[in-house]
Design a protein that fits this description.
five-stranded mixed β-sheet, maleylacetoacetate isomerase (chains A, B), 2 domains, tyrosine catabolism (chains A, B), GST_Zeta (chains A, B), Glutathione S-transferase Yfyf (Class Pi), Chain A, domain 2, Glutaredoxin, homodimer, Glutathione-S-Trfase_C_sf (chains A, B), 50% helix, maleylacetoacetate isomerase activity (chains A, B)
Chain lengths: 223, 223
C-alpha cells in the first residue's frame, strides 16, 4: 500500500448537510478513522473552504458535499462513496446478501437521495426564495415521505429493511432531521418516526450528528 | 422456478420518461424480453394507467415510473432496478469489476439521477409553472452538465467510464434527450455531446428511444 493509500481518509463535509451525515454514519459504522475538511456551501465561514471556489471544484466538480479522499483517490457523491466503502471494507456490511433485499435497500436510498433531498437542498431553496421556501420544502418532503412510509410499512423490521442495519438507514435519519428542520408534520408517518427513534440510539449515527461537527456554529452545537 | 418467476417481466413505463428509458436500455443490453405497461404520469391517456391512481400506488408507492415486475416481485426506482438486473443477470455487465471504477460509474449515475433529473422532472416543472419552467429546467441541467462534463473529461474512453458500457451510459443518453427537449445549449459540453453521439448507435439504446415506445403519440413517433 502506498503512503497515500495508507493515509487517514479525509471527508469534505458540512455539518448541516444530510448527504455528509450519510457518509459519516457509514465511516463510523465500519470503524474507519477519518479527518474532516469543513466546506461551506453557501457563504465563506471561518476555518472552512467555500464550495464555490476553483480549489473545491478540483475536489468535487459538482461543488457539493460530501467528497472522500481515500486510498489515494477522491470519491464524490454519498451513494457512490457508501457503495465503495462497502465493497472495499466489507465488515459491518451496508447491504444485505439477497438481491431482492438489496433492491429494496436501494429503492429506499433512491427515494431519499433522488426523490426528496435534491428538491429541498440549500441551492434549490435559495432559488425558491425566502417567502416560498418553507412550503416548497414541506411539500416535497411530505410527498416523498408518503411513498417512503408505504415502502417501510412492508420492508422494515428493527431497521428500514428487516433487522440488519443498511445504507437505507444511513439515509433515513439525516432526511428526518431535514424534515424537522423544515417543520414537516411527521404524524402521518409512524414507521418513519419509529425507525428514526430506534436508529438515533445507534452510536455510528449519533456520533455523526450535525450538531456534533467541528464546523457547527457554537450557538447551535450540542453540549 | 415458479410460474410467476418464469413469467416475462413487465416494465411499467412512460415513453417520455428518462428514468424509464434507463431501464429499457439495461433490459435490452442484457437481452431480457419484457412487456410494457404504459403509465401516464400527468393525465389520463387512452390505453394507459394514470399514475395517480390507487391501483398504481400499489405498484409504486412513489407513483413514479419505472417499476419492473420480475422474478415474482415488483421493483421500483431505475437505479435499484439496474443494480438488481446486474446482480441477477451478470452477462453484459453494467458495472466494472474494479471498486474505484465502480465508484466513478455510480458518481456519474448519481449526478444525473439525483443532481439533475429530479429538478427537471414533470412534477417539478408543473409546479414551477408555464412561464418559468423552461429557464428553471435549463439552469439545473446546465449546472449539472458543467460538473458532469468535468468528470467525463477524465473518466471517459469510448463510453462514460473507459471503453466498456456501464449504467452511467444508461443514464447519460436519456438525460441529454431531456436537455435537448428543454433547449439547453450543449456547446459547452463537448464530452457529453461526443458520448451521446457514440452511444446513440448502440442498439440497446436506440431500441429504447422514447419515440419508439407504444404509448408515444403517433404524431411524434419515429417512422
Amino acid at each position: 500500500m502506498s503512503s497515500s493509500a495508507a493515509a487517514k481518509p479525509v471527508l469534505y463535509a458540512m455539518y448541516a448537510s444530510s448527504c455528509s451525515w450519510r457518509v459519516r454514519i457509514a465511516l463510523n459504522l465500519k470503524q474507519i478513522p477519518y479527518d474532516i475538511q469543513s466546506i461551506s456551501l453557501l457563504k465563506p465561514v471561518p476555518d472552512t473552504v467555500f464550495s464555490n471556489t476553483d480549489e473545491y471544484r478540483k475536489v468535487n466538480p459538482m461543488q457539493q458535499v460530501p467528497a472522500l479522499h481515500i486510498d489515494g483517490h477522491t470519491l464524490c457523491d454519498s451513494v457512490a462513496i457508501m457503495h465503495y466503502l462497502d465493497e472495499t471494507r466489507p465488515s459491518n456490511p451496508l447491504l444485505p446478501h439477497d438481491a431482492l433485499q438489496r433492491a429494496k435497500v436501494r429503492e429506499i436510498v433512491q427515494i431519499i437521495c433522488s426523490g426528496i433531498q435534491p428538491l429541498q437542498n440549500a441551492a434549490v431553496l435559495t432559488q425558491i426564495g425566502k417567502e416560498k421556501y418553507l412550503p416548497w420544502a414541506q411539500q416535497w418532503i411530505s410527498r416523498g415521505f408518503r411513498g417512503l412510509e408505504q415502502v417501510l410499512a412492508s420492508s422494515a423490521g428493527k431497521y428500514s429493511v428487516g433487522d440488519a442495519f443498511t445504507m437505507a438507514d444511513c439515509c433515513l435519519v439525516p432526511q428526518v432531521f431535514n424534515a424537522r428542520r423544515y417543520e414537516v408534520d411527521l404524524e402521518p408517518y409512524p414507521n418513519i418516526v419509529r425507525l428514526e427513534r430506534e436508529l438515533s440510539a445507534v452510536p455510528a449515527i449519533s456520533a455523526g450528528h450535525p450538531l456534533r461537527q467541528p464546523d457547527c456554529p457554537p450557538e447551535l452545537a450540542s453540549k
